[in-house]
């Protein structure tokens, strides 16, 4: 038997950064909000003495249980897709806060070029540079950087981001709310080398705060302790901006917000009387197995990209992308990232075991279209950075190329190099391609008998060329820093679902100005259902050379504006 609950103004499917932002803003506007989170409730009190590398970094304490929910993967449509049986290439968050709990805190704004990549590339280089005949599917996002800038600013104020102006980034209306983090010795070496090469290094914008800060909602974020347990870990000091200590806490102060955990949404319900709208969602209580319907005036999908896509697909909302015909937008333009970096071995020692998730220096001279691509066989590039995130001993075993991967020599070299190795990495975009997409698996299902998402993905020729280019530039910087030996990262072959690479999955529910090539408009309102909003990195038409969180946060604030406008006036939202 299915129980129907009382109707609310807004229901969010997932309560992390995006769900928290929408809940906080909607409740401020007087709307009633139900936040459905399939994981458990958690908070700072759960993370005291969290410095357990084996539990959190190796055994993935904070991650999704893929025995219950996973994806299937193949490199191309002629292969059989098989389930991902262990966390590997990316780490899917779980419980209240989602991946926003265990992120590093690197908080970049995407470049103006990112939002208009198709039109800007064609204007500068001509249409042939887009390589559409080779299957590349670059699209503009239907919004410009200038239109999104106020929302970037709002997100940075909410999270208290510590940083400094980027001479190669988009224009800012205000400076970062807190100053940059401390500049360690290895960062100063990178800065000096970059300046010698006439590049433009800056301190990385960080959600690990340089000083205590009270955000506009009255939430306090503390100063970072540089303990080096950020990525894959929660923060025991409330010094890393996460949804639980910012937007979720703000929403929970309002009587208009209700949080329901252990609530796994399995379907979006289309209105029986009006197929241009949805009427709510169906969810299962993961503790009791009971089924519920949550009616709502507005539904916001605010979970991770795979789940946002999955709910649209199983609810038959939108047209599934077909790589053979190019028709359909749902599942289109899945993208990921590449890392073209280098490792430098030094004779001197560094305190590499200390740090923070976003303690680093970076430069954008090789990112976006900040360098000439006329004679290069790829578009875009990557942000080049050195980070001091903390070299933890279980997962840090640096040895020079050619060293055995086990035995006495490996052990000796690992111990020697543990504090003598510095890495510079170019975090690069990947290019959207017609053969990379999301679909639904026809064989495998999750614990709730819902089909799994099927990922069809491989690196493209552009990705391989971009990665090689960035690795060579990283090597040049390390040589200028004085490394006695430099190893470039291996060139890309086929993409594999292991080992870990980055949790920067994008696409599948893209935004744009054309329903033929996008799922939502620039308010993240679904083209086929006026009261359905979909927000997350799935909205990206392609990836960038940055971590996605700040852009996701900005889009969430844009979406919240759209939801509030819709609640007031209804109908199709138009760009102002």
Automatic annotation (TrEMBL):
The keyword Phosphoprotein does not apply. The keyword Flavoprotein applies. Pfam families: GMC_oxred_C. Coiled coil: none annotated. It comes from the Bacteria. Belongs to the GMC oxidoreductase family. This is Gluconate 2-dehydrogenase alpha chain. It comes from Jeotgalicoccus coquinae.
